[in-house]
């Protein structure tokens, strides 16, 4: 185990590059949606952002999640190290709780307007493929790491659980953002176990009511339990529009424009920003209000 933990950077990099290459080949062999923007524009800028994020993260934090978990085990910090839970149970519960925290954090980044300004850069990609899962603003990455370190310090999870969670989360983020065409019966079965591309693609719809759903990155259960699950996009996977309304040009896909997106325009489209009703929905709402008013007046007269 010490050898595995010592080789953490090499293990994570190997797993990342292997899954990224596999998803890229799968996207070429069996794409789900037609690609309209040259891959070189999106991939070069999305991958450049990964380099920037990694450099800033390493410079900002002297220790990351796995290292803090090792330190916690050595010094007896955190819940699981204090209560002396069985190792296997601590591993399983730690991975479940870390995944739940990622779900709740994702909801928070959609609900708080200031945080949504950061997170919407992830949604502003005009197409949906594996590199979309790597496209996060550096400040969001720093906030996410601060939250993760706080959770690791409080829980005291086994270091191997944190390492496994990090590897699995990175792999599933690449998988569920991939533009791959899973057979429909496979997707229906698989989305009970892991977030599938069709399930997560709904989250990248331009429709705010679909944007603010399907928050899970790894395990799909939290969306079903919390009532944020949407099975399919209203316009279908081929007909839906990817992205957000504010940034629709190819120039917005360049890394310099991505980095300043939090400063541009209003923070509309977040989870607490009620989406505009369609004319049909407005008419239905007006009919409902009129009916309620009539019932109320009749009740008062009878009284």
From TrEMBL:
Composition-biased stretches (Polar residues): 279-297
Highest rank taxon of the organism: Bacteria
PANTHER family in the record: STEROL DESATURASE
Cell compartments where the protein resides: Membrane
First and last residue of the signal peptide: none
Residue intervals of the Fatty acid hydroxylase domain: 92-228
A GO BP annotation: lipid biosynthetic process
This protein's name: Sterol desaturase
Major localization class: membrane
Gene Ontology molecular-function annotations: iron ion binding; oxidoreductase activity
Keywords attached to this entry: Membrane, Plasmid, Transmembrane, Transmembrane helix
